[in-house]
Amino acid sequence: MKKLNCRVGEYMKASILIENIDNLITLQGKNRPRTGKEIYDIGLIHNGVVAIADDIIIFAGSQLPSNIVIDENTIVIEGKGKTVTPGLIDSHTHLVHGGSRENELALKLKGVSYLDILAAGGGIHSTLKATQEASFDELYSKAKKSLDTMLSFGITTIESKSGYGIDDFSTEIKQLEVAKKLNQNHPVDIISTFMGAHAIPIEYMDKPDDFVDTIIDEMLPVVVENDLAKYCDVFCEEGVFTIEQSRKILLKAKDLGLGIKIHADEIKTLGGAELAAEIGCTSADHLVAASDIGIKQMAKRRVIANLLPGTSFNLQTDKYANAKKMIEEGVPVALSTDYNPGSCPTENIQLIMSFASLIMKLTPEEVITAVTINGAASLGIEETHGSIQEGKIADIVIFDAPNLEYMLYHFGINHTDTVIKDGNIVYEMK
The whole model's pTM is what? Predict the structure, then answer.
């Protein structure tokens, strides 16, 4: 964690002060993913106050200490009638991509499955073509627009996956470089994940193991050498990558120093959750069809379940990950948009939070924990992000809502009033 440049008792000048906060949700506590009873202790403070110095939180509590100085240069924000939370973390997105897939809506309405659309050359294959054909600048502009939208919903950090080049490695590189440049230029922090194993290329359909070897021998070393990603992810699913192929790719990525994630048991119960526990994935994502044994094993190994209810909603499967069971078993749960052009074309994490509550029956405490400290842990940044407490990075959202329950209840709109990122006001409601 970043250290404050002062000793206890010394005076500190606040650059921003948020005062009279009706509901300050701090998530204060140990810097780790929350499970069990910890989930429900969200550090709620009524009539709270938060002080920031430069990019660091210097106080969060009920009464401002006397050693924190407020002067004419301090920006004072009124928190009456507001709910304040840590910056929201969207820990599973496919941000950088070309094109769109609204043409698939009619097929979905007719009951055509995602796997059938994929087998017919649609789905991800159409996005591959659009992304390959798009220039760097076109991808940058499109992704920046989405990032602006995410920021307006209170998202301050995202994960961005490649995966729309697959065998066209230059496109994979292009996606990762776009994300890298956006991370340098945009207020929202971007943590990149290499996902060359997103689909089997058409020309490799009869020899998928050859493509696995290409990823391992030719792609992963270049990604690592050029510091283009923090994580590696694999789509482990029927008709995509098998358990054995996924294990091989992820263990090689782990050996090269990358963190590992997995798209697991989204449609079929293949044992992806069990594999995530076996090889020590940071997170297993989707998990709609995860087995009871897989859930228990994930709990034992503290693998984070990154759940994506917006995808289930959009695919009209009527099947959602069993979030309540996961929480009961001790699995740390995160929530994300899965923003992508096919299965979940939305940047609205507040809508995802409402889905988690209204459809998956998660409590407000479970929801806010999932999109803050647990989301941070799924990206390996829980030491510096995910809660409002002294010494952490000042990523904070002020919502124009009297309480957290109201945000989830009044769904489909944007409740964001103000977003503070790295101690700077980067968004204000118009």
Answer: 0.96
